[in-house]
Amino acid sequence: MRQLYTCILLATALTLGAQEDAMKQLDARSGEYADIALQIWDWAEMGYQEEKSAALLQQTLQDAGFTIQKGVAGIPTAFVAEYGSGSPVIGILGEYDALPGLSQKAVPQKEPAGGVAGHACGHHLFGTASAAAAIAVKDWLQAGGGKGTIRFYGCPAEEGGSGKVYMTRAGLFDDLDAALHWHPGAMNAANAGAALANKSAKFRFHGVSAHAAGAPERGRSALDGVEAMNMMVNMMREHIPQETRIHYVITDGGKAPNVVPDFAEVYYYARHNTRDVVIEVFDRIVKAAEGAALGTGTTVDYEMIGGTHELLPNISLQRVMYENLKKVGGMTYTPEEKDFAAKISASLGMKSLDEATAASVMPMQESARAYGSTDVGDVSFTVPTAGLSTATWIPGTPAHSWQAVAAGGTSIGVKGMMIAAKTLAGTAIELYKKPKVLAAARAELEERRGPDFEYIPLLGDREPALNYRD
């Protein structure tokens, strides 16, 4: 018994020593990683258009000794970087796409930078921190600290493009023992995350043009079809599960009031906690579109744009992630950062700056209510998956806001990014040394998804929507 206890203490000490070495390596290179992240922030490339951002991360990983496989899953900006051989195989996910219409300077007041997009979800930090963590793990493996394979997954177009769904469908995650991810946020937490399943599509109505005043009887308005569809879907909200979320935006409603529009388009999202309900609700949305076309004398077709599974939690992995986040801890603001943060807080209507949230780690929750969606959900049904968030934004900041873009372009965003990089690296190193945890995580995955589970992507067999922004 004493010998066993001694072995456990030795293994724990070795793991802690390896993690501390990885932290020091990350600290030493934090300036380099800041430059990479802020360059991607400045480029702000939208989904499936992240050519420069993906190339920069690929070069960074290649220079560190990784083998790069480009253009995976039929997506030019998707890639896999790998180092090592054999098992266990640990994957770290990275994103780098920006959001349209949210250009913003790194200043504490709304001041567009003149671009067409902005990193309002912090994916410039996401991709860079994940790459930094993968490099730290690679250095540990190369130094003989452990055996196995580390992979970085360059995942494009999370924002509406479902990039990871195509990667999952292509089998790129099938041989992983664990997948680790993170996301920028307004607090430091490693909860068992939740996300809504989602189906999205563009519905396109086709009518007949005519002079709206001179010959209205000759026209059939495609915009009438869109508006009739929207009315019916809005009435449908009363008769669907209350957790459901439906959003839409009219992307094309015609060009001039005196011309009956022969084309109109509306872009829909349907979300729920479970994919089965999403499928049912989406099918009803399709029926509403067909009915609207029938009633307005138009025709309609639709194109699937995205579809993601809900996020499947894995408590076995999540506990390891949480303990590593606690070791790393939160951040403190410099006087300059505090001044910036206070102004951002004021712009959000907050009475004072909440420094304590940025400086602390939230207690772990094993269940959480879902609001948004992520294509990590599909990965989580394929391989045991765990994640975290860090305070890259000022506490209280909502995602997809100019305030998130602004903070992400400052040292505050970089500090949160490095907290994530350290946590991911420490978690991966620990997992290499704990095969029993990986076995428990696999067993938990199989139990949660059920014995009859079959992965069927919600977006079907369509090819990646490389022009989905158009």
CATH architectural designation of the largest domain: 3-Layer(aba) Sandwich
Which regions are unreliable across 5 or more consecutive residues at pLDDT < 50? 4-11
Helix content: 40-55%
User: Distance between termini?
Assistant: 66 Å
Count up the domains: 2
The sequence of SSEs as H and E is HHHEEEEEHEHEEHEEHEHHHHEHHH
CATH top level label of the largest domain: Alpha Beta
The Cα radius of gyration reads 24 Å
The average pLDDT value, as a whole number, equals 94
Largest sheet descriptor: 6 strands, mixed
Percentage of residues in DSSP E strands: 15-25%
Shape: globular
In DSSP terms (H or I, runs of 4 or more residues), the helix count works out at: 14
Number of strands: 12
Q: Which structural class matches the secondary elements? A: alpha/beta
- CATH homologous superfamily annotation of the largest domain: Zn peptidases
The CATH topology of the largest domain turns out to be: Aminopeptidase
Strand order of the largest sheet: 1-2-6-3-7-12
Describe the structure.
- The chain has 2 domains: 2-192 and 311-449, Zn peptidases (Aminopeptidase), CATH 3.40.630.10; 197-308, Alpha-Beta Plaits (2-Layer Sandwich), CATH 3.30.70.
- 42% of the residues lie in helices and 17% in strands.
- The protein contains 14 helices and 12 strands.
- Helix 8 crosses helix 13 (411-432).
- The protein is globular.
Short note summarizing the structure:
The chain has 470 residues and is an alpha/beta fold. The protein is built from 14 helices and 12 strands.
Lay out the secondary structure.
Elements: H1 2-28, H2 30-43, H3 51-63, E1 67-70, E2 79-84, E3 89-95, E4 99-100, E5 117-118, H4 123-142, E6 149-155, H5 163-169, E7 178-185, E8 197-206, H6 222-236, E9 245-252, E10 263-272, H7 275-296, E11 299-308, H8 315-328, H9 335-347, H10 355-359, H11 376-380, E12 385-391, H12 402-408, H13 411-432, H14 435-449
Parallel strand pairs: 3-6, 3-7, 7-12
Antiparallel strand pairs: 1-2, 2-6, 4-5, 8-10, 8-11, 9-10
Helix pairs in contact: 1-4, 1-13, 2-3, 2-4, 3-4, 4-13, 6-7, 8-13
